[in-house]
Amino acid sequence: MQVVILFIPPNLLPKKSWELIMSDLENHFGDDASLDEETNQDILSFLIKNSAETSTMEASWNFINSIGNKDIIALSKTEYWEKRHKDIPKNVFKNEKIKSIANCKACHSDIEKGLIEDENIKDISDFM
In the chain, N or C terminus with fewer CB closer than 10 Å? Predict the structure, then answer.
């Protein structure tokens, strides 16, 4: 049995993005995350069933509207992400506790539950 860890909840990306991600796991953000075909299809089915299009959360709609028809697989590449993070000094993302803009969990402690609203964000002064 393979263990799969999702760093973002399925409801933050649209179906198209999940299909793109799952179709190229051997080149997954610089890593080889390849899975056997059955596991890949099971995970893809779960992701599509729970994608942004199926969610009533505000963040889901903000991301899906920001992505539109573009081939985007990283939340940090969306206009919505850029708008919401524009006032955060760039050095915060280089802090050893964060390391990357892709490490959502560093600031959004409940991201796995899809909770990215302001009240669920850690105080970034800890990272400055």
Answer: N
